[in-house]
Structures are given as C-alpha cells and as structure tokens.
User: What shape does this take?
Amino acid sequence: MPLVHQTRLIIALDLESFDKNVKIAKDCAQYCDSFKISWPALVYGFLEGKGNLVREVKKASGKHVIVDWKVADVPHTNEKITEMAVRMGADGLTFHGFMGQDAAQPVFDVGSSHQTDVYLVVQLSNPGAEKWMSPLVTQMCEMAKKTAANGVVVPGARPDLIKKVRELVGKECHILCPGMGAQGGKPGDAIRAGADFEIVGRSVIEAEYPPKAAYDIAMELRKAQGY
Ligand code: 3DU
Assistant: This one.
C-alpha cells in the first residue's frame, strides 16, 4: 500500500501495550495517513504473546504502516532485516545511510521488489544528533536521490533543514518529520517548511482521548497547507 497525502499525519504507536496500540490505530485511522511502529512497541507485542503488531494495526485501521527499525548493519544482515519487515507486512521501513551505499543497497533492493517503501534517516531530532549527523546531511540526501528512496526522515522543528533537504532531494521524495508536539515542534510548522508528513507520538497516544488529539493535529496540518 503506498503512502498518500491526505491528512499528512503519521501517528507513532509507541505504547507499551499491544491492545492499546491496536485500539488507537482503530480509533484514529480516519485522522492519519500512516502508523509508525517502533522497536519497543513491536517487541512488547511479542513479549505479551500477542504476535505481529504490524498486521493487527493494518487490520484494525486499513492504513499504511511503517516499521521504524532504523536499519544500520552490514549488507547481508540488512537484507535479512528488510525481508523480515516485508514478511511482517510493513508498507515502509526506515534505515540509516551512514553505513555506506553497499549496506544501504539491499534495503532498497528488497524493499522495492516488494513495494515496501524505504525511508532514509537524514538526521535524528535529538540535540546530540546535530554533532554527528549534520555533517552528513548533503551526502545522505544524495544517497536518497541516487537510490530513489521513497522518503527521508528529518527533524520537524528545523524548518531551515527541511528547506535545505527539499532542495537536495527534489519534489518526488517524501519528507517525514518527527519531533512534533512532545519534543517541542509545533504541529504544522514542518508542513509549512515543505515537509510532506508530520510524525506525532506522545501528543496523541498519551492524550486523554487520542482521536480528539489526532483530529486537532490533523486540523493544524490542514491549516498549514492553506485550507
Ligand atoms: O516524540 P514523540 O512522542 O512524538 O514520538 C516521536 C517518534 O518518532 C518516536 O517513535 C521516535 O522514536 C521517532 N523518531 C524521532 O523522534 C526522531 C527521529 O529523528 C526519528 C524517529
């Protein structure tokens, strides 16, 4: 299933409960374009003996699901990890480019042969990433462009960086931005700076009523597009 622009919101299902993550997916599906599942959420599901959270979220919501594994290993291991994401039912997978083209290539190859989107993490949104990852931004964008990655992940509270990345990757490559809400980014600001999607976790999943929180953010994203 492709990631399409509708609400522009991606919800990060990071709760430590399989059932709660699935319930949020069901209740919030109409207000977002995709759900993102991190390592901890997926592992909690297995520890709880509940099985494959990716499939359950897809079943409950009918939405695109991204597995946020931020793959960063040697080539043959990256190939196996990507195959596992495909078998779990992922529509998208995140990975790092800093381990080089040879290690990134199997992620692209396996992903594209199964219509699973691959999203290259250009820079993480924590302050420490500035030191280690910002010197590589241009090279990471070049790699994303050369290998036709479906998208890149860029800090949402950095409009200057979003604009720079857009210039480097072009219009076809999706820009996905975490760091909105709980990490300080104001919902809508990343879209205004040229991003395609904003990723929001705690501001939705820890809200008293998650569908209302998701609806409110989706409305902010509409405003940011000038509607
Ligand atoms: O801060 P929030 O609760 O809105 O969650 C953000 C999610 O996005 C969370 O799953 C985190 O692991 C992920 N993420 C970042 O926060 C920053 C990145 O650069 C990449 C992913």
Q: What stands out?
A: Residues 210-224 form the longest helix (15 residues).
